[in-house]
Design brief:
623 residues, alpha/beta, eight-stranded parallel sheet, 30 strands
Length: 623
């Protein structure tokens, strides 16, 4: 039913525009290939797939901000279980204007608030549940964080978005799919009806079992229909069909990033079958190549959003105040997100006071100043203006005399599609052309860094494209070098020298180096003799560094012992909540100390329910 509805809708949205190719037809958001179409015909149609007005405006923002704030801010959790008392929510100095002013100074164009996270606690006085700010001591239960942020955004000219977690660990009806879908849509309706214009609605795919033991089945068709009815200008992200998750939470965009992609949005009923038939998923490196188009029956304009937190966690934790990302790291993320045809959604979590912490405020201002300074002056004399390039075409651009450069910018007119597949950049210096850099896709914006040089001119060659490439901007800039002075994260308060694994060779798990890793078949406990007793206050589990996360532990038990025979189970929540998407070292503190010489780390489940265990490193905390 969903596919037929979409097909009818898309057929009505094909656009006709007057360009240098008269009566060229464009396909807005979605294109279906004829059953007998050749690869050449498919590629030609793909070149004319374009964004909606809302998608274009979203892409042009470049910088957007996530604000993870809620019950977890006060409990120290990343994923709450929905059982914490509303009385814990009590920010002492909440000031949404401080948030928005800091974001505006940081160059952000939109603020997106976690109106409800997985714990089910609502930051607005909803009529659907008692688990909300109306039963907190903050403002005697008369406060509304969503309202205060919306008003601040309006005052300072900032766009406004909401995140509403589909997963709700507090709602008794979760798992009773019809009842919870009705409950969820009521919450969504409140947010989309009572707070003015909403520019982005953000859903992740978080899902679980309800109190009845049944897994919730979301009615995405009804959910998206609600958004289209109440906020038709809003883009829907991740489990929506306007904006796509890049596939990781590390700030890493693809080197080849197609907005015209064969990946079917996860909210469509046929998405699993379509994506499985093509062998793709959100994390796949290839989402739009010719090889993929050859197998595809349709393409979507489904651009990438890169979400990443400025801190190791998504919610504020005071012990991470010294672990805020460095300027150098954030600049690298900018190049790998905005510079790779994506929008950067950077999380800056307010603290227990209800303020964005001073360190975070300073860092995003540093980022804004650095980006602003770097791209303030285009050193190409004639870079702006439309260049319609055929495959093999080159164009030379004069460089302002004496200009030192190391950064290249190029943009396509995506209102006419994303077409460039491969390009080369050369610099002319000392009487000869020399290689500078090269890239694959361009899309809205592509940034490439290369060695410092002082060229007289540059030459751009379109080596491969889907029809005529519409290049709108070419630039050269100089980016000051930055050094990442962040110290290496300390994984253990106890020296690992002298530690021994009992009954196995697991030296790689206790060598203080995440690059080396211990792996085992099955869910295999790791037992360590530290050689002497310590007052153990917690532990650190570091997953394997790199792309292969197989064996990464999701749920666990942790035990200590003084003699290696009698074991005491430590007080933990037993879950590395977001480790699949955020595979960083997790520091678990028990809230008390245990005297122990031995410890046992027992995996209960792996992130993909596989029968495998992997440990990049493990450490012991003394405080």
């Amino acid at each position: 039913m969903m596919k037929k509805t979409l097909f009818a809708w898309i057929l009505g949205t094909a656009l006709v525009a007057c360009t240098s190719q008269p009566q060229e037809t464009f396909y807005e958001k979605y294109v279906i290939f004829p059953a007998d179409a050749s690869l050449e015909q498919k590629v030609e149609m793909a070149s004319r797939l374009v964004p909606t007005i809302q998608q274009l405006e979203w892409q042009q923002m470049e910088f957007t901000a996530f604000l993870h704030f809620g019950m977890n801010t006060f409990t120290g959790n990343e994923w709450g279980d929905g059982k914490d008392s509303p009385e814990l929510f009590n920010p002492s100095e909440l000031d949404c204007e401080q948030w928005v002013k800091a974001l505006k100074d940081g160059g952000f164009k939109m603020a997106l608030i976690t109106a409800k996270h997985h714990d089910g606690f609502c930051l607005w006085p909803t009529s659907t549940t008692d688990y909300s700010v109306k039963n907190s001591p903050w403002k005697d239960g008369k406060g509304d964080v969503v309202r205060e942020l919306r008003d601040a955004c309006e005052k300072y000219g900032m766009k406004f978005g909401v995140y509403l977690s589909p997963w709700d660990r507090n709602a008794e009806c979760y798992g009773d799919s019809p009842a919870y879908n009705e409950f969820f849509i009521k919450q969504l309706t409140e947010l989309l009806s009572n707070y003015g214009e909403v520019h982005e609605v953000w859903f992740d795919g978080a899902n679980g079992e309800g109190p009845n033991g049944k897994k919730q089945i979301y009615d995405w068709e009804a959910i998206l229909k609600t958004i289209r009815t109440l906020q038709p200008k809003a883009v829907t992200a991740i489990m929506g069909d306007d904006v796509r998750w890049v596939g990781n939470e590390g700030g890493l965009g693809r080197e080849t990033e197609w907005s015209a992609t064969a990946l079917t949005p996860g909210s469509y009923t046929h998405s699993a079958a379509s994506n499985e038939a093509l062998g793709i998923k959100p994390k796949a490196k290839d989402l739009g190549s010719r090889e993929l188009i050859a197998k595809a029956s349709q393409l979507y304009w489904y651009p990438s959003e890169v979400d990443v937190s400025i801190r190791p966690g998504w919610f504020y934790h005071s012990d991470q105040d010294e672990r805020v990302r460095s300027l150098a790291n954030l600049v690298n993320i900018y190049y790998q997100s905005v510079g790779c045809n994506s929008v950067l959604l950077l999380n800056i979590p307010p603290d227990k006071r209800g303020l964005i912490h001073e360190v975070d405020v300073q860092r995003i201002k540093e980022l804004s100043d650095y980006i602003g300074k770097t791209f303030a002056n285009n050193l190409v004399a004639n870079g702006e203006g439309l260049w319609q390039a055929q495959i093999g075409d080159s164009k030379e651009y004069e460089v302002k005399p004496g200009s030192l450069v190391n950064t290249f910018l190029i943009q396509e007119d995506i209102t006419k599609g994303q077409r460039v597949e491969d390009f080369l950049v050369e610099v002319y210096s000392n009487g000869a052309w020399q290689y500078a850099t090269e890239g694959t896709t361009i899309g809205y914006k592509r940034l490439l860094r290369f060695s410092d040089c002082t060229p007289e001119k540059i030459r751009v060659t379109i080596r491969s494209a889907r029809g005529v490439a519409n290049i709108t901007n070419v630039g050269l800039y100089y980016a000051e070098p930055l050094e990442d002075k962040h110290a290496k994260v300390k994984l253990s308060d106890v020296s690992v020298e002298g530690w021994k694994a009992i009954g196995m060779d697991a030296a790689a798990a206790i060598d203080g180096d995440r690059v080396t890793a211990w792996t085992a078949e099955g869910l295999t406990p790791l037992v360590i003799d530290m050689g002497k007793e310590e007052a153990v206050a917690g532990f650190c589990y570091a997953p394997v560094a790199g792309e292969d996360l197989s064996g990464t532990i999701y749920k666990y038990n942790f035990y200590i012992s003084t003699d290696g025979q009698n074991w005491t189970k430590c007080n933990t929540n037993g879950e590395f909540s977001n480790i699949m998407h955020n595979p960083i070292p997790y520091f678990v503190r028990f809230g008390k100390t245990y005297n122990a010489r031995y410890f046992k780390f027992e995996p209960i489940s792996e992130i993909n329910a596989a029968s495998k265990t992997s440990v990049g490193d493990i450490g012991i905390l003394l405080k």
